[in-house]
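From the pipeline queue, job 12 of 40. The input is one protein chain; the requested action is below.

Action: predict structure.
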Amino acid sequence: MSSSNNIELSTFPEHPMSQTVDQRDDNSDNFEMSSTEDYQISIQQSEMSPNKQHRFSDLERTGDQSSSHEDDDLDQEFNLPRTVDYMGHPVVLESTNVTVSWKLKLQSITCFQFLLVVGFMDQTIGSIMHYMLDYYQVDRSQLSLLFLLQLLGYVTASFANEPLQKRLGLGNLTNFAMFCVMVTCLGFYWKFPLTLMFFFSICSGFGIGTVDCCLNVFVGNLKYANQLLGVMHAFYGLGCLVSPLLSIHLIELGWDWNQYYLLLFCFATTAFTCSVIMFRNETKWKYLYMIEHKHLKEQEADGDISQEPASTTELLRNKYILFFALTLFLYLGSELCAGIWFFNYLITIKKVVERSASYITSSYWASLTVGRFVLGFVTGHFFENNEVRAMVLYTGLISGGCAGFWMFENYTSLQVFFIDIVGFFVGPVFATSMVIAIKCFPARIGSGGIPVICGLGAAGGAVVPWVMGNIAEKLGDGTSGGGLVYFPNMMFTTFTGAFGLWFGFYLLNRKKLENYEKL
């Protein structure tokens, strides 16, 4: 219960109308009243409106109270899972400790599966771009509009995420998001005209953005969030790693480029089915309950009961939200740009054969995947509650790797080494940023601010590749893709700019960030 990563359930103020809950004794058929001190859930009448006074009441507690697992303090104290009544609707409360909850383990695996599908989707266009260029008879700058329109869907999803969760709940919202991905896969499989493909890119962006926002908040509030987010985003990197190898291999076997999307449709359908099963208790009532609960705790701690949730305008004016969004914009944009255009850079500028280029590109994603997995545990073990220091270290090493990639552009083997170094340390950036933001933002800011950060930050994944696409087509020696010669310069500029932002921000806000004072 001491972990700052959890939404705790132990500190409700007292409520004069709170009720004790019946508990069946293991050695008797009789019911006994459980201790009010241990199991009472209440809301202080003097601090709440009459409507709020009657929202919370215990209905049921299930599970084995005699469990002796040392790490299961939450389950032992509150006998989770259990059901409470919130505004006339049942809400199932479950453990946030993945080491003691089998259901949470399965939910985590489902989250990993989601990010695996997202990784496949994000990297596929870069892998099959040459075939799409030939099929649609367009240039790279025109095809790069797919990235920009995916951005439109992603940003829309980020701003709509909180109101949609309030209306649908996390379970229904993730189901709908994966359905959008399924529709996109079918659209690309049927090879519609390019104008319709633009629509499917918007649909894909909305689905991916919704999944990203929902899962980052869900996993970020669990115990061992650094490790779990690291593993979850490692599966994104795994999807990006496998996609170029698998797509090129299948095309060499005789598949058309569009048939690969039928395989992705099967992956997305499996993820959709798992979502329906595993997140059925994540209703809108549970989301509202947990947000109000966390907000009440902060009000009690601050002695301020008048705070209201931040408006969209306030969120967009918050300098800390803008900082997180800008740094993620540069990092995620550069990360995806490297994965998409590095392949084309090797073929066009370095004259590497397609199969070798796919292997080299996959080495970048392999490094990123390993970095997310390994450094997630390193951050959780050595930088717990000091994640800001880890961020400064990682971003500095990324900048150094980019410098090497640019300086040794005449030596392909050294470039591969340095781009893999970049990928390794880029790996944990997104997950660690989310952990810092979740810990630092108060409930009134965090519930709406985290999706905004995800949306504005991940917009870089569309904008930076699009900018690189225009540079590739319109600059250079005038040949198709000649501007890719500036690819190393682009990577150094964006990654180093983001490092400068993090380093300067850390120096200016060192005390507040390291003490996790609310921003």
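Job complete. The mean pLDDT is 79.
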